[in-house]
Amino acid sequence: MTFSLLARCARTGRFGMVISSSSPAVAARCAHARAGVGVAASQNITDPALGPRLLDLIERGASAPEAMAQVVAEAPFVDYRQLLCVDREGRVASHSGGKTLGIWALAEGEGVIAGGNLLAGTGVPKAMVAGFNAARGDFGDRLMAGLKAGAAAGGEAGPVHSAGLLIVDGESWPVASLRCDWDEAAQPIEILARAWEVYAPQMAAYVQRARDPREAPSYGVPGDE
Length: 225
What we know:
The protein has helices spanning 26-30, 50-59, 64-74, 124-134, 139-152, 188-199, 203-211; strands spanning 2-8, 15-21, 31-34, 38-44, 81-87, 92-96, 105-109, 112-117, 162-168, 176-180. By secondary structure, the protein is of the alpha+beta class. Helix 2 crosses helix 3 (64-74) and helix 4 packs antiparallel against helix 5. The longest helix is centred in the middle third of the chain and has 14 residues, at 139-152.
């Protein structure tokens, strides 16, 4: 009931992911990233604890494949889980348990991995990786291109209702965490894309306000004179 793409930006070292699902608030449960460490997704029948567990292991020195092997060996009910991760070196790893729902598939590239379940077809993740790799511009633009490519390739077998984008970059908090938690009209990816278009030009200003508000640009709203 989910399709996602996770990546490391080779130029900036940022980590990020995009995700969409028929379930509500998919990014709140499935998307995990840590600056300087990696990015992880826990999806299918989700255990939200497994994403942070993968990142903990990577932060302690494990590669993505090593972290994945340990989590798969230790986690309960792992047959129900679909897990993906990317580490600080751009290495990727995944696990799709025997009880992964419906049509499921994975695709990998250099520093990028995509996967999903209950898909319209097995080509969806491959289309996402291709869309991400072909895109130019900001890392977030490339992530959104991957998500849109997945949707254009069929996405989930049924309508999707939630979507999210998560990016970390040098801070203990996400520099971008955008979500559409529910859209009855089944257009959460379009809503997320519009949110990113608005937020992207302001992202650096929000980071600067956190680092040193004395050097931050004005808010540009009424009353801020």
